[in-house]
Fold these 3 entries.
Entry 1:
Amino acid sequence: AVARKYGFKDASNEWKREGCSEDFEQIDSEGYLVHIWLKYCKFGFQRISDIESRRIREGLRSREDAMKMVIEADHKLDTKALNDFVDTLGYTTDEFWEIVKKWNKYL
């Protein structure tokens, strides 16, 4: 809300990102969202957990509401971000998942 007040544009008009709770991050580098998501494979949480825990501490969200968001979306990898990532690096999605399996603890 504060960012919009000062004219900041988000990515909400372009696509609804899976596994994200904000549309203000990485609006010009879709594939970078895969980097953020990879934390989930290794540690069991990703950016949504980070954002929602901050919102709880700041009094912007109840713990119950934040937990719903985390349970619903923290594990999701955005398809558009994945496609951009593998296209940029020259991998197929199958090759990507084979690499991820080596590090996966939670999928």
Entry 2:
Amino acid sequence: MKTDCEPLCGGMDTRLTDELHDEWDALAERVGTVFSSRPGYALNAPRPAGSELAFVHVRRGGRLVALAPLFVTRMGPVKVAKILGNGQGVPTELLSEDDASSRVLWDSIDDHGLTYYADSMIDNRTAIEALGAHPRWRSDSLVRERVPVIDVPPGSTARDVRGRKSLKRLEKYRRQAERSGSPMVVETIRDAEHLELRWADISRLAAASTRHTDRTDYLAEKSPADPSASAKAFLLGEAAAGRLALVGVSVDGRWCAHEICIRTGSRLESWLTHHDPAVAKYQPGHQMVEWLIQTHDELDVTVLDQGVGVNDNKKAWSTSGYDVIAVVGVPTRTIGSRILVGLLRRWELSPGFAHARKVGYAVLSRLRPSND
């Protein structure tokens, strides 16, 4: 029988074997709190062309107990490791069973000559606390934003979250649509077959609502980490596992809005929302949130996580929240580690640098594929 007294051993692989993939999935099931920590999402998340994969892991008696799935880029001579999914507007976390495995995870990342940066990590996680206390690392963190959350205990309804006047206004818009001969219909997609049937509508709307904007159409992205993977494959996998809850709004029979949500335990996370501006007068975003609250018992969730990116819609419904932070870590043995922490943070968080980096990545993506 495995015990906590067994020795911990860290290591790193640059390729993901089928065995490590399955172990990663099992570890995420045990300790993960957000969908971005699962391989289905992480391997489909866009990353820069030319980046390299690195899977830093910790084992206790042969059993995987901590994992940092990373992509590595360079800032001059410095190798900067970032968690897969970094920069994609989702909360992220490193997977670790306990404090001891977290410490060894950071030992191993240092042993392989890597610095670390992440832009939206969930605060107060074991691995992040271990980094701050680790004698081999110099680190800094900065709260980026507070992610809005809607608490929906069993039996609660939209009336427990929003006032009567607000809910009546949403009901009025639904009646207006019906009286105009263009009734509003809401449906929830939870299984793979239903998702396949609606995929053309979903992808069409995502493309139309992101075209001529600075938003990324993630549903059209092919995975740089695995050319055979896609966002559709990720969502089909989540549907097959019973974790998908995609709410769609049709007006006069035409798919006009959707909110794509993924469940982890009793938590439902909003990932992507798209809508046709032609139906904005009916407030489809608010309509879908109300629908999720009203059906949360059926979905078996008690928390609706509205995701990174605060706006007035989310603020209007939120009842609580949690912080996501930007984290920089540089091994203390690195020459100029104290200065490098500040430089790396400014490079990653500066709007000017971010734009230059985005343009550079786009050019590289057109010139050459990513390395596995």
Entry 3:
Amino acid sequence: MNEADARYLIVGAYAVIYHTEPRYTKDMDIWTDPARDNAAKVWDALVRFGAPLADLTPADLSDPDVVFQIGIEPNRVDILPAVEGLTFQEAWERRAIGTYEDQEIFVLDYESTLRAKKASGREQDLLDARRLEAIKKNPV
């Protein structure tokens, strides 16, 4: 994604892990800016990666109802065009910037991660929200 200059944020369990501590997860969720120009950059990044794109078009990456999955659990990557309760532009402006193997990575910030986890309402997400709140009260 970085080489294609695509705007993306690591969200979901990996964002929780970034802000708290490691836990098991079945996939990595990557939220991409659904703007058409960015969707084209994400498409380019997926082509370079060698993703199986037979049933996907660049326009699909802007569709809020399309989640593109690569791989199988526990090594699956989900490309998301939307995250409940958040807008990409606001989240992008608040993003956390980390590094992984000398590459800059963009992660959903703490407050937005907490808000998204609460908005989801799923059991695991509510557990994650409690973990996020606990770490804020008792920083490591």
